[in-house]
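So, could you explain the following?
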Amino acid sequence: MKRVQEVKNDISVEVEFMTLLERDREKREEGREEGKAEAIKVLILKQYSKGLSVEYIAEINEIDVEFVRAVVKNNVPKINN
């Protein structure tokens, strides 16, 4: 109990804890952003596989057409090359 109180009163421990807490929050946010990006890529590829054009996919999803092109180019196997 005495050691717990000492740790609670130690400012360096508090600073370290807050630093770790902030890092954890940043990592969770990065994970959310990566998850969103992956979901968008899956959506683009699904729409493309249904025959929608790159331009139309960009328009309906309000995404930059060059981004859609890059996703398709990097994820759709080349046929008859």
The chain has a mean pLDDT of 88.
